Amino acid sequence: MTDRQRLIELALSGLESERDRISQEITQLQHQLRGGRPGRARAASADGPAPGSRTMSAAQKRKIAASLRKRWAERRKGQAGSNAKPAARAGSPNKGKAMTTAQKRKISDALKKRWAERKKAQKAA
Hints:
Elements: H1 3-33, H2 58-78, H3 101-124
């Protein structure tokens, strides 16, 4: 074996160990993102998921999806009447809609009058 080949083998083994270390750090960070504590990550093996992890069959997923669809359908059915517009106040000329221009003007004039009186009282004091 030549010196050049030996050097390449040493570089390759160093890079592989660095790759393994980085892979472990990535696994730990991903575990932390999922809500785990640092330092307790389980590395996934080449033949399957990490030990202790759970997998769900397609039939289980379909069953859960069906129950959720049923639950949301019942909820929507129960809220069907509540999506209606709120009832108008008694004596309201516009039956639950936004204020009319006349109503807005009346409120605005009342506020202007109130602020003018307050300003006048402050000047007198």
